[in-house]
Design a protein that fits this description.
Number of strands: 17
InterPro entries: HUS1 (IPR016580), HUS1/Mec3 (IPR007150)
Shape: elongated
Subcellular location: Nucleus
Oligomer: single chain
CATH architecture of the largest domain: Box
CATH topology of the largest domain: Proliferating Cell Nuclear Antigen
Organism: Durio zibethinus
Distance between the termini: 42 Å
CATH class of the largest domain: Alpha Beta
Strand content: 35-45%
Largest sheet: 6 strands, antiparallel
Protein name: Checkpoint protein
Keywords: Nucleus
Number of helices: 6
Length: 292
């Protein structure tokens, strides 16, 4: 079982500034699943409770050089502390910047090793970061779990396949910041958020308490998957009424922050062209199975 690769400058920026800080907020531990073509961070995928998160990268998105081999179809998986991983990446960037002419002056190598820690009698696995300069090298060891067995890797792969199944209807939200700001304000009102998505391209977000009902509607969004035409006679009705009627007809689905798949779309820098080498999606836990 071997893995060795060189992180590219673009890969370091993706991990250090965007993905690892986000994953660190999700939870302390995640799986890192390495295959011939992908590096995948999996949070909470084997547990039934809590938010599930999958960040998947084609090897070219993170690495300049990528070599992997194992007796399990060149697949290797283990658990790792995200905060320690983030700290190692940031330290390596700092070292490269301080002793080189920018982050790309020195190559950042990452590999799986076994080492004998102090006061231990058995070698333990580590994900090692090695920053090689002209005259010196700095090595950082991030402890990991024992690599998963063949059966455990199969279980993880099965869970990944299930988690990546898409719901029949998705809507594309063009202004994520607007939606995020609204949800941030809503969380001070109550704990449960009602979300409904229609085949017409409508997204309804609402929170209710005994004293107040607060909601927002995003209409005529791009629909991916099953679509339908909105009844013309309902155009002047309230958002709540239209949502309720669409749900009763089977043209919309409603959940309370549950069974909700959020897929983030990434673009190639400087363009509006989708970057298919990176994917991130999250699934919120089920709170109301009856209406999912």
């Amino acid at each position: 079982m071997k893995f060795k690769a060189f992180l590219s400058e673009h890969g370091v920026n993706l991990l250090e500034r965007r993905f690892l800080p986000a994953l660190d907020k999700m939870g302390k531990i995640c799986h890192l699943f390495l295959t011939r073509d992908h590096a995948i961070f999996l949070h909470n995928l084997l547990n039934g409770d809590g938010v599930q998160c999958i960040a998947q990268f084609r090897k070219e998105a993170l690495f300049d050089d990528y070599r992997i081999s194992s007796q399990n179809e060149d697949r290797i998986a283990f658990t790792i502390d995200v905060s320690l991983l983030l700290r190692a990446v940031r330290s390596s960037v700092s070292i490269c910047t301080e002793f080189g002419n920018g982050p790309s002056a020195n190559r950042l190598q990452i590999k799986l090793v076994k080492k004998l820690p102090p006061n231990c009698t058995q070698p333990m696995p580590f994900l090692t970061f090695e920053t090689k300069g002209y005259k010196s090298a700095v090595i950082q060891d991030v402890p990991i779990s024992k690599p998963l067995s063949r059966a455990e890797v199969l279980e993880l792969q099965t869970a990944l396949d299930v988690a990546q199944e898409l719901p029949p209807t998705l809507v594309q939200v063009p202004d994520l910041n607007q939606l995020q700001n609204f949800v941030e304000r809503m969380k001070h009102v109550g704990d449960l958020l009602n979300v409904s998505i229609s085949k017409y391209g409508d997204l309804h977000v609402q929170i209710s308490t005994t004293l107040i009902t607060l909601g927002a509607e995003f209409r005529k969004l791009l629909v991916i998957g099953e679509q339908a035409e909105a009844p013309t006679e309902e155009r002047n009705l309230s958002a709540q009424t239209r949502s309720e009627r669409a749900i009763s007809r089977g043209d919309a689905q409603s959940v309370q922050g549950a069974c909700l798949t959020v897929i983030f779309q990434f673009f190639i820098p400087g363009t509006r062209q989708t970057d298919k080498s990176i994917s991130l999606h999250c699934r919120l836990p089920v709170l109301d199975p009856g209406s999912s």
